[in-house]
Specification:
This protein is of the alpha+beta class. Helix 2 runs antiparallel to helix 4. The radius of gyration is 19 Å and the shape is elongated. It has four helices and three strands. The C terminus is likely disordered. Strands 1-2-3 form a three-stranded antiparallel β-sheet.
């Protein structure tokens, strides 16, 4: 218990610097880009670290299929894949920043966890 209190006290001491780094991290997250694909590349989706869809590309072959349900499934699969990849990148970036301040992994302080798409 005392160990955790010491860690929290250390974090509090670095709070202004942590805020600065969080702002920089938010900027970097917008620059992270990940891509997912489905249907052997018939559908490609690109997202950024802010969980925004940047692009969705459908191949001519995907459009010619004429199967709306399959196309919807491929778009969903490609999007989920891209989002999972960018979540991993975001978690890595967040962990690097937290480690620089001596914040132990798994402490889950507000603002130091990877963003999610849940509201």
């Amino acid at each position: 218990m005392f160990k955790e209190l010491g860690q929290i006290a250390g974090i509090m001491r670095h709070l202004p610097k942590i805020r600065e780094e969080m702002e920089r991290l938010q900027q970097r997250l917008g620059q992270l880009v990940s891509e997912g694909d489905a249907g052997a590349g018939m559908v490609k989706v690109r997202v950024n670290g802010r969980m925004e869809v940047l692009a969705c590309q459908l191949s001519d072959e995907a459009i010619k299929l004429g199967d709306r349900e399959m196309l919807e499934d491929m778009i969903r699969a490609a999007t989920n894949q891209a989002l999972e990849r960018v979540r991993q990148q975001t978690a890595e970036e967040t962990s690097k920043m937290a480690a620089g301040f001596g914040i132990p992994p798994g402490l889950n302080l507000p603002g130091l966890t990877a963003p999610t798409t849940e509201e």
